[in-house]
Design a protein that fits this description.
alpha+beta; three-stranded antiparallel beta sheet
Amino acid sequence: RPEMGSAVAHLGDTTTRRDDLERQLDRATLRVWIDQDLCTGDGICEDLCPDVFVILEDGIAYVREGDDIMNDPGQHTGLARVAPDNEAAVISAAQKCPGECIFVEPA
């Protein structure tokens, strides 16, 4: 049975990670989105950069910011900011995507 102090410490760690991610995203120079109509579901993007890309139960890739999944089905309705540490991996994913469905834009 966990002690109350450890639960509070864990909550603090989660808040700190979220704050760190938000600070990184505030420095973003790129945004990314996926055209789900073109996605082939190969998962190369998720393999290259799981911090930004996720394959959902429908077998299609989506972009995300932390735990927030963007691009509710539909074109570029949700652009995810790309943390500076992930820029090279996101660009690589866009270049290697067999469906050519990943679009990278300046922030």
